[in-house]
Amino acid sequence: MLATNFFTMRDMSSQIKFGTSGWRGIIAEDFTLENVRRVIDAIARYILATASSRPTLIVGYDTRFRSDKFAGLAAEMLASQGIHCYLSQQASPTPAMAFEIRRLKTQGGINFTASHNPAEYNGIKFSMPNGAPALPEVTRQIEAEIQNPSLARQAPLAPLEKADLAKAYLEDLAHKVNLDVIRSAGMRLAYDPFFGTGQGYLNRLLDQAGIPVVCIHNWRDVLFGGHPPEPADEYLHPLRQAMRENNCQLGLATDGDADRFGILDGDGNFISPNHILALLLDYLIESRRWTSNGGWLGGAAKSIATTHMIDAVASYHGIPVYETPVGFKYIGELIEQDKIILGGEESAGLSIRHHVPEKDGILACLLVAEMVASRRASLGEQLRELFRKVGTYYPGRLNVPLTENLKTRFAERSRQDYSELEGRHVVKMVRTDGLKLVFEDGSWVLFRMSGTEPVCRLYCESPTLEGLEDLTTAARNYLFG
Asked: What's the chain's average pLDDT?
């Protein structure tokens, strides 16, 4: 059995910090065998100190280099400390793991994935017993355990079982999405899993339902085709080509661990995740709210960096909005409390009522297909109609590299109060997460320091494209002026 308390001096001195979605590092630099052992050992000690007398965890992995080997190591370490462990028998989407955690009623799960990050990264996501990402108070305890290792606990070897994370999860999705509507519309879909864990999940469900789908990049490539496994506009050209060649009406994509989504309209145009969230909220309210069993009463949730179009749609339908810090864990809490119909983040994260409190890119793609099939209108047509109902919203985002001097200056400026920014009157300041300034015309800007990179995340939104460009320039001037 592998030892769990042997670490090099170099690794003992390195700091391991959990961000909004776990711990990530560059393979062979930060993400080393020794550091993985440190993290798993710390999680094991946290579980043994807080869980029941028979703790159980699920371990999964994505398609990255040696993720499956790291998962096997973790499962052995957990079993050696008396923790009953289920090891996924295939590469596993984060939302599928969240669903299985809840179904099997385990004390949580460990997923080896760096999500949408480039191939040189790997990481560990730790999920709670409800399937949601671990909250900061939990990850702080794990970080403390990492810095204070102890001798391995002597315990009888616990069971280590293989688990199929696909079957029950896909059966559940088939009840949450109206596949009959998609099939009856005669749509042909194209899907790009970006060589990630969505392959064998989204396309499998569509195939089983008799819905034509063209799937590209559905094999393991640990380099992800030479770019990050992120369903962003600039990486979706192969999907556009597949749509043209196969006469597809919709393009769907998921990231490396299938918790994020990317959508192309029938003409190949990329539809912003912000706009997708607003469209789906409008659609779910109309199609789910008033049903025979009482309907989907509830509000909407969004992170502070997400479009105010969510607020406008919610106001149009008379439902409340909850604004959270960045990190889906906070939206997941509202799902668990049954307060919302839909929760979303501008970074292409979404979940819905009665689903897992975790981002689910597979579900998001299926709901978009259902919406297009049900409304018999393209996403562009639907977005123009929604603009007509609630007004126009044009969001943007960029990362601004910061030197140490700029970081210090920004930290000082972010603590100040503001009545205007380059002639724009500030009507509201929000410091839930970073500094957000809301202006008279409804436009806004958010400055937020990255927790993992030396950059400032700059989010802007304006009623016009010209206004968005001007606001972005003003925000950059604020940082560098």
From this structure: 92
pLDDT-derived band at 400, boundaries 50, 70, 90: confident
How many angstroms separate the Cα of 212 from the Cα of each of 35, 188, 241? 44, 5, 17
- 242-to-188, 214, 347, 379 alpha-carbon distances in Å: 11, 7, 24, 19
Task: Give how many domains the chain has, as a whole number.
Answer: 3
| pLDDT tens-place string over residues 63-112 | 999 999 999 999 999 999 999 999 999 999 999 999 999 999 999 999 99
Q: What is the pLDDT of residues 355-382, one digit of tens each?
A: 999 999 999 999 999 999 999 999 999 9
Q: What is the DSSP letter of 133?
A: B
CATH number for position 86: 3.40.120.10
Quote the DSSP letter at residue 218.
Answer: -
Number of CB atoms found within 10 A of residue 384's CB: 12
Q: How far apart are CA 23 and CA 17, in angstroms?
A: 6
- Residues 173 and 43 placed together within one structural domain of the fold: no
CA distance 7 to 173: 43
Between the CA of residue 371 and those of 250, 347, 456, what are the distances in Å?
11, 21, 35
Query: Which residue segment(s) compose the domain that 435 sits in?
Result: 394-480
Give the three-state DSSP class for 139.
helix
